[in-house]
Amino acid sequence: MSTDFNRGIMKFEGADNPVMIAVSAVLVLGAIATLIWWALSTAYVLH
User: Fold this and answer.
1) Is the pTM of this model over 0.70?
2) Radius of gyration, alpha carbons of the chain
3) Which of 16, 26, 40, 46 pairs as cysteine with 5 (C-beta 3.0–4.6 A)?
């Protein structure tokens, strides 16, 4: 069974691999969480 997930911006083999999806999700969510933490710590000087 073939999927079409690797036809969009992720044009490499294995882009629809669940491991790759999980790694991408962790990286994106981690970056968002880091930016939120940085913004709060900068705005409110939380230490």
Assistant:
1) no
2) 16
3) 16
Give 43's pLDDT tier (boundaries 50, 70, 90).
confident
pLDDT (tens digit per residue) in 7-35: 566 666 666 778 888 888 999 999 999 99
Torsional sign, CA 7, 9, 11, 13: negative
**Could you give the residue ranges of the DSSP H alpha helices within the chain?**
18-44
Contact 29, 37 (CB under 8 A): no
Distances (CA, A) of 9 to 33, 38, 43: 24, 29, 35
CA atoms of 45 and 17, how far apart (whole Å):
41
